[in-house]
Predict the structure.
Amino acid sequence: MKEVVRKEDQMDVVGIALDVSGSMYSILSHVSQEILDLLDKFKPNKVIFCSFSDTVSCETLDLLSAMEKIKKCVADGRTAMYDGVTTMLNEMIEFASKGNNVLALVVTDGLENASVLYNKEDVEDGKKKLRELVGNECIQEICISSTLEEASTLRNSIPGLLRGSSSTASRETTSITNAFQTVCVQTKSKGKKDDGTHTVHFDFS
């Protein structure tokens, strides 16, 4: 049975920090489609889309523009994860502080090796601030590697990551799809913290 996102669970703003480094080349098309499917489910008013490799590109877009941008992503370069994730989080914190329902999604397949603007502590601080505003489940992270064991090792190295709001995947398409299906959302209502966590498992087939 397919789960339907209830109106009160829909997001005002979805933030995406997407690794587009060279190592994502073989899986970027499938990862991008999973992100598109997720956006289609939530239909946010705004999308903060940050792609990162050697550098970071970050824009606040309407839904359709964001989807078109994601379709055009190309994998190349190294992994400026700290810069990409922190840039996205800073934008999300501003929206969350104004009472918007927000979800931040981070997708990566590698370790930080190229950031110049932010460091490990900046990532941890950004995640802490957003969680204080919205709750632990507002940040979902997907770590991908050649095997699930290697993905788990990667997950353990990500600054500020909470295991309960993260998933691992191998490079197999079914594994990546399963990781996206585990995304759960803690919603806010009228600018106040929600006391409960709404978990939604998606069937994108």
Summary: The helical segments are 28-42, 63-71, 81-96, 120-134, 148-157, 173-181. The radius of gyration is 15 Å. The chain is about 35% helix and 20% strand.
